[in-house]
Amino acid sequence: MLLFLFVAVLFLPTSVQAHSLLKVGNQGYEVSELQQNLKDMGFFYGPVTGYYGPITERAVMDFQYKSNLSSDGVAGPATFLMLNEVEKMARVVHGEARGESYIGKVAVAAVILNRIDDSAFPDNVGDVIHQTNAFTAVHDGQYNLEPSSYAYRAVFDAMQGWDPTYGSVYYYNPDLATNTWIFTRQSVTKIGNHLFAR
Question: Which of 19, 32, 84, 105 is the most exposed place for a label (fewest CB within 10 A)?
């Protein structure tokens, strides 16, 4: 995951590069947007003010720490990229595992990270989750739902190394799966309604 982030920062998409370097003393819409993102993810407490003070700095540092970034309290390109990646993953987790236990949510996040680390899959979150037919939630629109706080927490737990799937790169509900190919994958474990496989 750290190698992915280093490579990803070298080739930042234009939308991420468009963000200014935000730090203590800055104010405006970009700061409000940052505060709201951090609030949604459980790092920023209090009202969104648009002022980057010590509370925002602390929230950024906490986010950076949980995301395995340098915790300097400055929101730069790597921080904005990671905010975007976490948001994408949380949307998939929420859409795919909304009715599952917490460990089931962490498992879905772990599968995304395992795919990034597997040479048979793309090496970044966006391409992994938008791969054709990879995630039902992306295909059927559940990806557009607002993630729960549990979805964000599950993503951070997976990023910290919790993988209840033991390296699985697939999962499916055996009662609902219609593509017989998935049944050819080696099952690793069952969590809730999902079988996890390699």
Answer: 32
Q: How far apart are the first and last CA of the chain?
A: 19
SS3 75: strand
Dihedrals phi, psi of 21, to nearest 5 degrees: -75, 120
Count how many domains the chain has. 2
Question: Token digits for 58?
Answer: 């602390």
CA-CA distances (angstroms) from residue 45 to 38, 40, 41, 170?
A: 9, 10, 10, 36
Q: How confident is the model at residue 18 (pLDDT cuts 50, 70, 90)?
A: low
CATH code for the domain of 36: 1.10.101.10
Is the pLDDT confidence value at 15 over 70? no
pLDDT of residue 5: 46
